[in-house]
Design brief:
homodimer, Arc Repressor Mutant, subunit A, elongated, mainly alpha, Tetracycline Repressor, domain 2, DNA-binding
Amino acid sequence: MISPKSTKKQRPRTHAEINEYRRKSLVEGALRSLAEYGVSGTTVSTICTAAGSSRGLLGHYFATKDEVMVAALEYLFGQISLMVKESLDKFDGTAVEKLHQMPSVLFTAPVFTQLNRTAFLALWHETRFNDQVRVANRQLYRNYILRVERMFTAAARELGLKIDARRAALGLIAVSDGLWLGLSIHDDVITGEQAIEICQNYITRELKLD
Amino acid sequence: MISPKSTKKQRPRTHAEINEYRRKSLVEGALRSLAEYGVSGTTVSTICTAAGSSRGLLGHYFATKDEVMVAALEYLFGQISLMVKESLDKFDGTAVEKLHQMPSVLFTAPVFTQLNRTAFLALWHETRFNDQVRVANRQLYRNYILRVERMFTAAARELGLKIDARRAALGLIAVSDGLWLGLSIHDDVITGEQAIEICQNYITRELKLD
DNA sequence: AAATGTTTGTTGAACGTCCAACTTTTTTAT
DNA sequence: ATAAAAAAGTTGGACGTTCAACAAACATTT
């Protein structure tokens, strides 16, 4: 059984704080339950236990379990996007260097954790079988593709290259998704370092740098 | 509700035939139930209904539901491997041409069907949360990597090239897995043709043909 | 004291497993 | 070759469990 995540800040007092805290707890609890037990093993009980609340509280914040799943997907996707963005912003370099740096961010902590990988796999499954989750994921996915596409466009402009930025973006996302999911199951087949190498190799060739 | 698949051959008579027929029916029923309802929606009832048998029969052929899942993964993986192998054997060409042809096989029917894609995603999820399925998948995956690696080795030898065949194989598998799973959710984001193009593009660059 | 947040109790439906009765095929005895 | 016995295959209901959703009671903040 998952134990509730230890809270760093002290327990919130006002209603506004409580609302935010509980919603976040429940969403994070859902992610941890999904990562631990999978889709079929995740129930309202396991989510609430992981969130450190009682069984019934979920109904206070979400109308249905599906709604929690949507919120969990948006939260996970948003957190990862934010972490990637922050890491790349911190990394001060050209557009080419930033693009090249991206796989390192994707395949190291705090993005590349067992929790994130496994929860992502479970939610990916949900995306196929849960209409609400699918709709939410489609939009997130579209935006993700656009962001990567823009990175390729910027890098190509820097190099004075003409490339098919969309195809390049789709390819890179496919490679990294494939490695993310493959690695989420078989840690012993590929290491994170190899994954980074494969992705960087892809970028290098797409930008004709070799 | 899924209707049982229409049988082409007439009803089997001998015990040996019946055993084979029923086992296959149940495994295919499991795949169709997984593709239709996902992991959480697949029950002994849905499997047996899809297989055209009564609820109780599953216990006669498999000790547990998990055992059916393992059999379903092995069956699906085996069927796809066989179809790819047959398509490539039929295609009479050099090792380079065969490798180049592989994505076309992976991303067109009868390999690239909604049933196969969706069942595969569901089983991939199972692989993470079901020990028996994970063990089975690990071996299947290893063999798959080795086969693709050998194709790259053969192609490189033909071209008089020195390449990292294993990394090339892992990369191609990652791309195609990513596209398979991405496409199985969002048909409108990428088409099969684009997926083939992206994979062939990867192979071309790995073999330094551009 | 009113509103909001939270826990606990209840309900009906659906689940997987088990199993006793039934049908069909195969073996044995004549 | 035929009939009886045995084995194998199949069915659907009973059982105990678990679930999501609902309802009611309790606690805390405003």
